[in-house]
Amino acid sequence: MIPAKYKNLILATAMFNLGFVIWFSFAPFTGEIADEFGLSVAQLGIVSSAAVIAVPLGRIVVGPLTDKYGAPVTAGGTMLLVGTFAIVSAFAQTYEVFTASRIVASLAGITFVIGIQHVSEWFEAEELGTAEGIFAGIGNAGAGLGAYFTLPRLFGEGYAGPLFSSNWRAAFFYTGVLAVAIGILYFVFGDAAKSAAKRAETKQGVSREQWLYIATRHGAVVLAVAYVMTFGLELAMNGWLGTYYREAFGQSDIVIAATFAATFSIAAGLLRPIGGYVSDLVAREEKNILPWFTGRYREQWTFATLVFVVCAMFGMTAAGLTGNIYVAVVAGFLVGTGCAFAEGAIFAQVPAMFPDNSGSVAGFVGGIGSSGGSIYPLIFAAPFLSNLHLGYAVVGLTMIPIVALSAWVFQPQIAERATENGWLIAENPAASNGNPDPTSDD
After folding, report:
1. Residues β-bridged to residue 422
2. Which of 92, 116, 348, 388 fits 279 for a cystine, CB–CB 3.0-4.6 Å?
3. Could you tell me the pTM of the whole model?
4. pLDDT (tens digit per residue) in 37-67
């Protein structure tokens, strides 16, 4: 019989993978959807943002709820809700109903936070980076292998099925049905934590005051904004690249354009475990890989990956300006690689820094980070830019202040107190109530 921790890891990963398939299932079909509802390229950028808009707040809310009620409850409820509205969107006859139902279906994106919390409840500190990386990496691949690669082949141009003649309607319907099934399975077979003691310890740390305290610590804030420029970027690219390759290079074939876009998503998803593994490795071996931040091993790796992402964004613009779509696809793959390594590094740090509040912190970091998925597509499709290639460099410029903030927080004298020192709120509510500090490793 499969050990319980691996069973729950499989459940979390399957939920997250399907969640990302649903979240980005509209992206390969933007051409057909635009034709049916009469949308411009700029409006498609708005649609890409709308598909993300509910997720930041949803993640912030579901994190503490998962700490309080356990992953089987929140995962089961989320997948039932998402599946229901994905099915509704398949039958939508107006743009307004379609957009509203897809916003609710986009809550599939909050499954990431649920899974992060669930995995952290089962794996020890020395395995966290790798386990979270496997969960997030395979789950994130749902955007590339699932949404971009598989769906256009199952529901390609000229699709005519038993229920729908529109390929995108069929895709939304059947993925919605799968979500309902996964939600039921998770509720029935999932286990909230490895022990009753661990479940009680996590549940005890949930309160509005404690959440506000944790969310304003230096460590939580810097990881959150770093996640904006990595996972937020991934969300934006997942929703935009199909349109970019089609509009900027005249690639009208839906399958080929989606396949090009999938190379980014596959890199961003499947390579993510490497980011978590390297973070575990340098921490375990106490290996300095940079001449700065001596003794802060996870921070060194995270900083290196953030710098790589910024450089890759400027490379994306340079590649696009060559006019060669294949050069642009390679550049997109490198951006995806940077996102994967950085995201794995960031979410190796989250449960390591906040072991008894992983759901709340994951919700905060994941929620704030998701906002990039709404902001960046508006820059990519901005009408004031002379071409569709320049948006990547503009986004790269916006990332430089985040890298600078990371460099400040990752200094050893600041990093060692990053879970205690912060902004706005000075007093720890847990300490004032006579409880042990939930951000402490002791």
Report:
1. 217
2. 348
3. 0.77
4. 887 766 666 666 666 778 888 888 898 899 8
